[in-house]
Write a structure and sequence with these properties.
Layout: H1 11-21, E1 30-33, H2 43-58, E2 62-67, H3 77-89, E3 98-100, H4 105-117, E4 121-124, H5 128-134, H6 152-164, E5 173-176, E6 191-195, E7 209-211, H7 213-224, E8 228-232, H8 239-249, E9 255-259, E10 262-264, H9 271-279, H10 294-300, H11 304-314, E11 321-323, H12 325-339, E12 342-343, E13 345-346, E14 349-354, E15 363-368, E16 378-383, E17 386-390, E18 410-413, E19 418-426, E20 433-441, E21 458-459, E22 461-463, E23 468-475, E24 518-526, E25 538-541, E26 545-549, E27 559-565, H13 570-578
Helix pairs in contact: 2-11, 7-8, 11-12
The chain binds adenosine-5'-triphosphate (ATP) and magnesium ion.
Adenosine-5'-triphosphate binds at residues 34-36, 44-45, 47-48, 231-232, 261-262, 269-272, 489-490.
Amino acid sequence: MTNEARTPSDFVRNIVANDLRAAKNGGQVITRFPPEPNGYLHIGHAKSICLNFGVASENGGRCHLRFDDTNPTKEEVEFVDSIKEDVQWLGWDWGEHLYFASDYFESLYDYAVKLIRDGKAYVCDLSPQEIREYRGTLTEPGKNSPYRDRSTEENVGLFEKMRAGDYDEGSRVLRAKIDMASPNINLRDPVIYRILKASHHRTGDSWCIYPTYDFTHGQSDSIEGVTHSICTLEFEDHRPLYDWFLESLEIFHPQQIEFARLNLTYTVLSKRRLIELVAKGYVTGWDDPRMPTLSGLRRRGYTPESIRNFCEKIGVAKRDTVVELALLEHSIREDLNHRAPRVMGVLRPLKVVIDNYPEDQVEEVDSVNNPEDMSAGSRKIPFSKVIYIEREDFREDPPKGFFRLSPGREVRLKDAYYITCVDVIKDKDTGEVEELHCTYDPESQGGQTADGRKVRGTSHWVSAAHAIDAEVRLYGTLFSNADPTGEPDDPLDAETGIELNHQPDGQDLAAHINPDSLEILTGCKVEPSLASATPGSTYQFLRQGYFCVDSVDSTPGHLVFNRTVPLRDSWARTEKFRG
Ligand code: ATP
Ligand code: MG
């Protein structure tokens, strides 16, 4: 990942460069990517991954992968494994530096005891509801807890008993003693430890008290010697709290830098929302090709390079913006244009019999694998008397501007012959076109004619006797409107300004789900070279888009293709238009 063609520049990289010039942190750059293992990674995480790993690698530093696993009730090993796989798939390497916040539980406990001994933390017996009421609002200060002035000795004793499991969940918490009148609600004696009688995926039943995310995150960074703790903007208001912890504990103080999270049109990027999509069955799982997860994008046919290029294109800024989904699609087209072999696949087949072609003859025509990359070579495709063309490439009454096949008209078959339609066979009952009869010009092999006459239309085709059956899945956006949630990812309680992260949702995503996000075509016909197509491999089906062999449902006997994207690039077009 070193030697990038060009190194991006942004405000985060400028801060790091200035620190290096000032020889801060002994000239070291240590960053980290800190996921909570409560879901699969999505394209927004890719932005953070590319930033953290990128900044480290550009500066000869290192980036840690650290799981912020402080919530035993929502976290699972499945998520840890998928996150590791996805980061590696994107092409980044944490080397030796894989960490878990849960490995620091003992140190964090000691830190909490130090705060108690220094008169900076206390055990509070208020109920969660009361804590909320005492907290005040954005416009009104909070009130001190009646337990705020407990003696150090009493606090130490109570906290030990909390750890020993003597109290019920919800009966007591440990809180930092800061300022109930602070204009920053995060500083109003935040909870730093709570009782949770739950097994943790790594520490098992060793603990029944768990540190909160806020008490864990900054100290974990400090323990690891992280120099630049890069996070998203919603943590800006938490920074004074993190600073207070680090200063009170008198430990190494990483520098927190906030940047704007990625938002994408037609997409939700909040794990809470993604969990909802999976749980309610709107998708088949985290790796459904319609999901913005890295595993979904991978299954859809996205390459790591395309996602890294996308992350570079969108850049890193301090203000929230919404990026067009079309830009992500542009990135994968740009990449696959160079690497995906061109093949012929007919999605909605129409049978064509070439009347004057010898009955048992089979010819092998030459076809270039990728005109963008002549080193990709060429292959042979069988041609015979009965072929399939795309149903939409024939019109009985061609409208103006339609140049493909119609009665009496001649067109070119890609890399094969010119054919002319001489008869149309229809279903007697429905009137639907069932079969076409054509003649071919034996002198037009390879698309050239002896007399040099031109045709305007070229169709892709497959030989009926040689074609392979395939299932093709076409995707639309999962949501029918560009802004499916109509709210920030982590909504704030209107009254208290506190994140509603773990509150049930009032708004249902159902209203925004696109009922046509998946179209399954069966009986598609693809050229025989695809018999050896392996799961995950990508192709351009001429005129139909980029496709990828499904890595879950495709088998040698039942080929399944996902359409990654159609060919038409709306982003490139509008960019051109914008000049
Ligand atoms: P939620 O979606 O519920 O807010 P999360 O996605 O923030 O959760 P984390 O596991 O905390 O989940 O994320 C790990 C890191 O990825 C954090 O540093 C977070 O700031 C960053 N991150 C998450 N979402 C985005 C996004 N959309 N754009 C950029 N970075 C993101
Ligand atoms: Mg988060």
